């Protein structure tokens, strides 16, 4: 790969982090705390990333890791632990008490709030350099000892080049990091589920105390907590459908049809703040490293929001990569960087397998296939009825048994 001629100057920093999502910001804050110089580049504005609604379920092992690094104060102060979820099928409620089986909980904390906390911790508290609104980001010399990242600054429109030791590519599926890798050096392994979900944000108090999934012949309906005033709902919709086809009354009618059962409280309705149709697919990049570039988060993998794994997987990448970079700078040990991809991929593929398993439970009843529907019901019975099977699945659901 060619080098930008302007990059031929002294190293400006140790690590350039491309992308200010949870993975990039966590890496930046942890490196900054360890005394490793780094710079974060982000194409969006600070206001945008702090308000963009995303995931909300954080596994307890992630919470404890953030807590050890002093990054969980807001999360612990404002989130509520979740210990169970519920599946509704044929009018029957099946409660999966995964905290009893695993000893750990989920914490509900919208991703944009964690991003806000991490930006403050990195930029405001630790004085970490971060450039928002950059454009024309390009990576150079990935297979050399001195790679570089060039970009156009938002304020001055001037071109800048940062040389460094390593690049952390945390800029998502559409970012430039993965595109900078030579063709054939990385493989993107993709799986399309052939279904779509409409993600709905409603100005409505929670309808239940825990995440609830309605397994229905008309399609999945789901509820997840976000805050005391805001609720997240999902509706399975035909692939390629448009939110414009789903006015207020139709959305709530379908949610009632798919989620309500006789012995449960009715849904609490409210104004629809957001409707987005998501084509449900997964992918994994192998390997996650090329030269001095290491991918993390959505640059490296995507999980459909079936098992609430995306943010947790991104932060697992961030912790692993930070530890590997610290070992390089503090001990001169590059074995962890060499093993980063394999170490991260073990958990990534376990999360993918669990997502796939749970997808069959959720979508079997709406598949128009009697065999798949009955297999889904059998899986659900085993999940909630067998302590041995339930404990194994609870460990995967909460992420305590996902490195094997």
Radius of gyration: 22 Å
> Could you tell me the number of beta strands?
20
The shape is globular
Number of helices: 12
Strand order of the largest sheet: 6-5-14-15-16-13-17-20
User: Looking at the chains present, what oligomeric state does this protein adopt?
Assistant: single chain
Portion in helices: 25-40%
> Cα distance, first to last residue?
36 Å
What is the mean pLDDT?
A: 93
The assigned structural class equals alpha+beta
Largest sheet: 8 strands, mixed
Low-confidence stretches: 1-11
Strand content: 25-35%
Describe what this molecule looks like in 3D.
Residues 1-11 have low confidence and may be disordered. The chain is α+β, with helices and mostly antiparallel strands. Strands 6-5-14-15-16-13-17-20 form an eight-stranded mixed beta sheet, with helices on both faces. The protein contains twelve helices and 20 strands.
Helices and strands in order:
Elements: E1 15-18, H1 22-33, E2 38-41, H2 46-51, E3 57-59, H3 60-68, H4 73-78, E4 80-82, E5 85-89, E6 92-96, H5 98-102, E7 106-108, H6 111-125, E8 130-131, E9 135-140, E10 148-152, E11 159-163, E12 166-169, H7 176-179, E13 187-203, E14 211-215, E15 221-225, E16 231-237, H8 248-259, E17 271-286, E18 289-290, E19 293-295, E20 301-302, H9 310-331, H10 335-363, H11 370-385, H12 387-398
Organism: Pseudonocardia yunnanensis
Enzyme class: oxidoreductase
Pfam families: FAD_binding_3 (PF01494)
Structure summary:
The protein has helices at residues 22-33, 46-51, 60-68, 73-78, 98-102, 111-125, 176-179, 248-259, 310-331, 335-363, 370-385, 387-398; strands spanning 15-18, 38-41, 57-59, 80-82, 85-89, 92-96, 106-108, 130-131, 135-140, 148-152, 159-163, 166-169, 187-203, 211-215, 221-225, 231-237, 271-286, 289-290, 293-295, 301-302. The protein is built from twelve helices and 20 strands. The model is unreliable at 1-11 (pLDDT under 50).
